[in-house]
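Consider the tokenized backbone below.
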């Protein structure tokens, strides 16, 4: 808390504490509900079915109420919505204790539905308030803390729920009192978040036909290709997470010989990995949002899921925990850049609605995961290990597609890692490079690695003006195309030089960072007409002279 407060402000620290306690409470109650239903109704032989039922109940309120909650988040203070939602959580947990006490499976399912309803109203404000509490160049770091601590809460919840069941001899009403205490502390933390003003919104009220509220914001941002990709990729992440959480319990029972409570510990390793992966994603991204991390996370998810399918035998049993942990690390690397990008890229006036639409699609992913698991286990008769293999192959296809769609992001990220690994770089004055909008970097040219060093020293992607002969070299040409380099040469005719400069000018007007190594023959470009081409470019209050 102290470190977060120093880096991102006290208000964000209290918000993070609120989210941490909420995630902790949700997971404890969810696992207690699964254990209760397995023990009181379904039995060990139908553990997968019990998990699928809970997952289906869990997703319903998010599908129905998230679009309406997004509309509220754009019309009212997100801080006030968070406070109201956290207060409602206390009342719901009290009802949960009563449902456990009277040993009614139907009552437990109803309370689970109410808990998810409260979370559905909390979710759009949770993600939408982050850009209101921190600066845009801190979004990746803020999301890394948020995701990291959220999954740390899941780790603790995954471990605490089986422990509470054991300590109380499966008297779940007594265990539920812990949820009441956690919810109360979370509500008190929410009051410490600074007051925020309503975003203004689009002025449109929520529709009773909630699918309209999902379609409308997505239609408004459909022209932003990268934002739409991030929204759908974020939905796939929740599909993976839900699949892991449910299938690991069945995997523990089938492959490892655990009972349902012991199997609950397995997801703790995955959640711990997600927390670490989220933290690493924030550290690697720095002040920017590194989309190149997403394909790496996707490949990690795919290979770990596939390998898990083959380690259920006795001699490889210990590898299950390592692979589950690495699966979580890959998931953390995958989700943090996506969440930060959605928050940054969404138009401010409809940010809550866009985030709500993204959340709606994500919970569709959870519903699909429950249906997929049901089909794989109950219809096709596949084991939990075989189900992991199917998930891994699906994710491998996604990873390959992400590389095809985002090759330049991946290449830039690899170049940045290479530069930071090979050189000890000390950056001074990085705050002078704006976190968004057009900018021109004018650099001396000392060695062949200058471009790598520049890319590693600042967070944004750079479009380099590069000598045409070098850009045409067979082994460099593909990389120059991926990095969208702008070829130029003093040997070019004047019209060709002007064309290159106009391309650079347009790139800056479009909000890109352009770099020119103004040394030797390149300096000759700054003459008469060439200077006129760059003079007066509007860079959001800055001008090139």
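A designed sequence for it:
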């Amino acid at each position: 808390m102290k470190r977060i407060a120093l880096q991102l402000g006290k208000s964000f620290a209290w918000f993070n504490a609120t989210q941490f306690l909420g995630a902790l409470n949700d997971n404890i109650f969810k696992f207690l509900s699964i254990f209760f239903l397995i023990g009181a109704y379904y039995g060990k032989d139908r553990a997968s079915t019990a998990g699928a039922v809970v997952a289906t109940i869990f997703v319903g309120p998010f599908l129905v109420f998230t679009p309406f909650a997004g509309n509220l988040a754009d019309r009212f203070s997100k801080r006030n919505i968070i406070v109201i939602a956290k207060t409602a959580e206390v009342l719901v947990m009290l009802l949960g204790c009563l449902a456990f006490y009277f040993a009614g499976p139907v009552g437990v399912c109803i309370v689970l539905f109410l808990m998810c309803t409260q979370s559905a109203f909390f979710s759009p404000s949770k993600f939408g308030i982050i850009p209101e509490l921190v600066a845009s160049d801190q979004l990746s770091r803020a999301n890394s803390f948020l995701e990291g601590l959220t999954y740390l809460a899941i780790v603790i919840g995954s471990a605490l729920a089986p422990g509470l069941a054991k300590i109380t001899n499966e008297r779940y009403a007594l265990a539920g009192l812990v949820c009441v205490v956690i919810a109360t502390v979370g509500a008190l933390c929410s009051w410490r978040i600074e007051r925020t003003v309503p975003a203004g919104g689009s002025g449109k009220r929520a529709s009773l036909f909630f699918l309209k509220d999902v379609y409308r914001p997505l239609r408004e941002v459909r022209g932003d290709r990268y934002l739409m990709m991030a929204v759908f990729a974020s939905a796939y992440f929740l599909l993976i997470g839900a699949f892991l959480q449910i299938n690991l319990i069945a995997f523990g029972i089938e492959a490892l010989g655990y009972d349902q409570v012991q199997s609950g510990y397995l997801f703790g390793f995955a959640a711990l990995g997600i927390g670490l992966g989220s933290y690493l994603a924030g550290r690697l991204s720095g002040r920017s949002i590194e989309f190149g991390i997403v394909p790496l996370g996707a490949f990690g998810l795919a290979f770990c899921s596939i390998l898990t399918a083959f380690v259920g035998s006795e001699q490889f049993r210990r590898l299950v925990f390592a692979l589950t942990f690495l699966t979580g690390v890959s998931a953390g690397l995958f989700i943090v850049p996506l969440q930060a990008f959605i928050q940054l890229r969404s138009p401010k006036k409809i940010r809550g609605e866009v985030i709500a639409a993204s959340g709606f699609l994500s919970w569709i992913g959870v519903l699909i995961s429950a249906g997929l698991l049901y089909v794989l286990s109950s219809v096709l008769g596949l084991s939990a290990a075989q189900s992991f293999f199917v998930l891994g192959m699906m994710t491998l296809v996604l990873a390959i597609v992400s590389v095809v769609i985002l090759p330049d992001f991946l290449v830039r990220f690899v170049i940045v890692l290479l530069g930071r690994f090979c050189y000890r770089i000390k950056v001074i004055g990085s705050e002078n490079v704006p976190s968004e909008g057009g900018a021109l970097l004018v650099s001396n040219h000392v060695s062949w690695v200058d471009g790598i060093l520049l890319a590693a020293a600042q967070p944004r992607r750079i479009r380099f003006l590069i000598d045409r002969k070098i850009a045409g070299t067979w082994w460099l040409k593909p990389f120059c195309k991926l990095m969208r380099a702008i070829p130029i040469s003093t040997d070019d005719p004047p019209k060709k030089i002007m064309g290159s400069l106009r391309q650079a000018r347009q790139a800056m007007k479009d909000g890109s960072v352009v770099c020119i190594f103004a040394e030797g023959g390149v300096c000759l470009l700054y003459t008469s007409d060439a200077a006129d081409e760059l003079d007066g470019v509007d860079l959001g209050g800055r001008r090139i002279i």
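The chain is about 70% helix and 5% strand.
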